[in-house]
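subagent[fold] <- orchestrator: predict structure for attached chain, return tokens only, no commentary.
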Amino acid sequence: MGIDPHYPETITPPDRPLGWIRGIPALADNPVQTWPRHLYEGRYTYVKFRGKAVMNLVDPALIGIILKDQADKVIKHDLQRRTLEPALGEGLIMADGPKWRAQRRAASPAFRHQSLESLVPAMAHSARDVSGRLLAGPADRAQDVMPEMMHATFDIIVAALFEDGGEFDAQDVLDDITLYLATQGHVGVLDIFDAPLWTSRLANRKGIAAAKRMRAAVRENVRRQAAREEPSDTLSGQLLRATDPKTGERLTETELVDNLLTFVAAGHETTALALTWTLGILARLPELQDRLAEEARSVCGEADVSADDIDRLALHNRVLQESMRLFPPAPVAARMVTEPFEVADKHLVPGDMVNALIYPLHRHVKWWDDPNRFDPDRFLPENTEARDRYAYIPFGGGPHICIGMRFAMMEAAVILARLVRDCRFAPQPDHRFHPVLRITLRPKGGMPLFVSPR
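subagent[fold] -> orchestrator:
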């Protein structure tokens, strides 16, 4: 019996928790494989580890408590800080409390709809480039589309952030980001047991060196831009001019570097993975590819996608949303409690860990009909109206919802529309989907696809 293409493969959850002897190595290897079946059917799990509670939530009502109602009583967890802070500092992803609020207020105008519309031509240019690179590749063997999606979204974010693409070697920075995430992004057994930070940095010294190089490159660009009489209209220029409307203060140089690197590293990575998983799914559904190509031509003809076109690409947007439901690029929102509060029947105290597990939430039998089936019609307006706000959170939720959400959806739609008009995708027959959590949710072995002209 063949694989039903509407049911992409995933990791089969264990029937019961693995226990510490098996669970700790499995957690370090790939956390997705440790999440038991109960997390796809129940409300939460709760265990004690080294005297602290670890609570994993998959109920939208409970997730709303930590992401919204009690958001001021939790902070990013130490595990997340160990992996991301060496590169991203205390930008919007890592900051908490007053520091986060001040940065969010200052940065928000740069991500308003009108500001983002001016970036669509750069998105369309990158989409043409990646289409051309894929079609220039070998027709007789599969190509891994994941690096190409990374390249495309990286080009877009660099063009959006820096005038003339930045005064640094973009490929070097992309290589350093990839190296950093491949090394420092891996949570090891020592991290789980809170070993001194120097042990993690010693094991991942190549990643730390990469973080220092890319921070230096971005800092130099910030200083060049700040030395001008008038900063450019790029996102970095807007952030240089930005002030906190409450205090009138501007972002410091370090805050600028932290946030620009956050947008460069996290922004391009998550969108690229959303596109990678989407193309992998579409490769098995040729009729859906044809429908997307028809919609793109109906909306745009053969021209580049314009800002006015994006919302009219309704099927494109539903396909992307459904792909991010099954394979959310950021599959966990991890928090550490700083003030006591109640979740369900549990009393959480400072130091406890409480997580929103987005991957099992999005495949939960109570919140989704036939949850493992790929069905873009779940996101028709009539099907989304009654859905709990916290049942679908690929960009997080509450006050900390991703500031770049609109940017990400725009660039993903622009790239996808170009690709389905130009290319046909087919799967490599022996390749199977295997999601692996390395800060983001990546396909093990990449995404090898056959690419041919449409």
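orchestrator: received. Logging for downstream: DSSP finds 18 helices and twelve strands in the chain. The chain has one domain: 20-449.
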